[in-house]
Design goal:
The chain is about 45% helix and about 20% strand. It has about 475 residues and is an alpha+beta fold. Helix 3 packs antiparallel against helix 7 and helix 10 packs antiparallel against helix 11.
């Protein structure tokens, strides 16, 4: 009799590229250093020593903004964000107020900022609400799923689930028309009142040991309990699928026909991964999720008559440098700038997702790449890595171990592609919501700590909070690629 031992599945993320225009410096840093050198040269040519002293403050300023850092970023790389934010403030684009009495065109969504261009289409065949972005030429559908706790599965089941999820991504990469796959995990603190109400109605209320133990369990579970909601949004790239859309009748209706094929591929893959499909969301369900994101205290649900996308957006929104104030909530969006650099289990985000008593949304954006496109991107990255190493060798700069690790990661990705696997571009965002500005500050600090425990590094999206909230808190399939 033989026994098979299954080793637990592990994963290690490739290091985020740190290469720049030259010697690891970004284009902005190279520009600042070059301007500093030109200022010194101009001073010497114009007036010699006195000219050098005259231009010294300006040249020192250029060098300072190139090397002095703020929150792990050189000051010069903050300039685009500051200029963009200043322009939006001067043009009064940081405040949004809904026009309640003004009628909206049919099919439009009441969202602020550049998301105001989004449209929706209720597909009569699949009874799914499709989100159309006319500017980016994309069409998205939202699928609600549920799943048992991964950490409670047997090792063999964990390995199978990870493997089957990889096949889902690979199947979407083979279609060549999937723009992005958005996985949104929303956590809503729940004091357990519904469970307590059900117990109060249906319990026997006898003065015995089982009832006493059950009441004690309800009292303990009220702290830190929460409701989790998981959705997967698949987005069709209408430009890449143009030929198929023309064959299906053109326009959004033709795109909906093509998208239904990708939806069926996704359904088949998710069932193979042992995930329970709760159905594709209609207009009322999508509207409820959007309204609850902007107004956490709302009592709107999918059965309410007012669950319409034409009015589901915020009533009022004020954007600040590091957070937004929307209806009854305050939110801050963080970007996951670094993923674990060591081998970790697939459930490495457990501490982040189950951080207690914090309303948050974890958004993962995955863009499956076709084999040809992925190989072209890898060859370009390899060429840049070799060229950068050559430049460093010429000036006598010692190559860092991080550069070696980054190049080795490229070789492993190329080997996996040649072996038949799919390559994926991905990014992650965390949206944290609280009922007050002080509570938001405390919640963000706890989330940053939980992210550190998960091996991740986070950065606040300064100056782009409204755009980040649409990407990281709403199931609209908006991408950053």
């Amino acid at each position: 009799m033989t026994s098979t031992t299954f080793s637990p599945a592990t994963v290690r993320f490739s290091r985020r590229s740190t290469r720049g225009l030259m010697l690891g410096f970004s284009a902005l840093r190279c520009t600042a250093i070059g301007l500093g050198a030109l200022t010194v040269l101009a001073g010497l040519l114009a007036g010699g020593g006195p000219g050098l002293l005259f231009t010294a403050p300006l040249s020192t300023l250029f060098v300072a903004i190139a090397f002095v850092t703020r929150k792990d970023q050189p000051l010069v790389e903050w300039i685009p964000s500051v200029l963009h934010w200043s322009f939006r403030v001067s043009t009064k684009q940081t405040a949004y107020r809904a026009r309640v009495l003004a009628p909206r065109p049919a099919g439009t969504m009441a969202l602020p900022g550049d998301a105001a261009a989004l449209r929706f289409y209720n597909d009569p065949q699949s009874r799914t609400c499709l989100i159309h972005d006319p500017h980016r030429q994309t069409l998205s559908a939202v699928l609600a799923i549920s799943h048992p706790a991964y950490v409670l599965l047997a090792p063999i089941d964990q390995v199978n689930r990870v493997s089957n999820w990889g096949r889902v991504i690979a199947s979407l990469a083979q279609t060549g028309t999937c723009s992005v796959l958005q996985i949104l995990e929303s956590t809503i603190p729940d004091p357990g009142t519904k469970v307590a109400q059900w117990y109060a109605v249906h319990a026997t209320h006898r003065d015995d040991w089982p009832n006493a133990e059950y009441q004690a369990l309800l009292a303990q579970s009220s702290f830190g309990s929460s409701t989790h909601r998981t959705t997967i949004t698949i987005t069709l790239d209408m430009k890449k699928a143009a030929a198929a859309i023309r064959g299906a009748g053109r326009g959004v209706k033709g795109a909906a026909h093509v998208l239904r094929i990708d939806m069926s591929v996704l359904e088949h893959g998710l069932r193979a991964a042992d995930l329970r499909l709760d159905g594709w969301l209609g207009e009322a369900q999508v509207a409820t999720m959007i309204r609850q994101a902007y107004d956490p205290k709302t009592e709107l649900d999918a059965n309410s008559p007012g669950a319409k996308l034409i009015s589901a957006g915020p009533v009022a929104l004020s954007e600040h440098w590091s957070f937004i104030h929307h209806d009854s909530g305050y939110s801050t969006v963080l970007w996951i700038s670094e993923w674990p650099r060591i081998e970790v289990a697939p459930h490495f985000l457990h501490a982040l997702i189950f951080a207690p008593d914090i309303r948050k949304s974890l958004c993962l954006l995955a863009r499956p790449l076709g084999t040809a496109e992925a190989l072209r991107a890898l060859r370009k990255e390899k060429t840049e890595a070799i060229t950068d190493a050559g430049h460093k060798a010429k000036v006598g700069q010692v190559q860092d171990l991080s550069d070696v690790q980054e190049y080795n990661d490229l070789l492993k990705r190329e080997q996996a592609l040649i072996g038949g696997h799919a390559d994926v571009q991905f990014s992650g965002f965390i949206s944290v919501t609280a009922s007050s500005e002080e509570g938001l500050t405390q919640a963000v600090a706890l989330i940053e700590r939980s992210a550190g425990q998960s091996g991740c590094e986070t950065r606040v999206l300064y100056g782009r909070q409204s755009q980040g909230f649409v990407v990281g808190a709403l199931p609209l399939g908006r991408s950053v690629f």
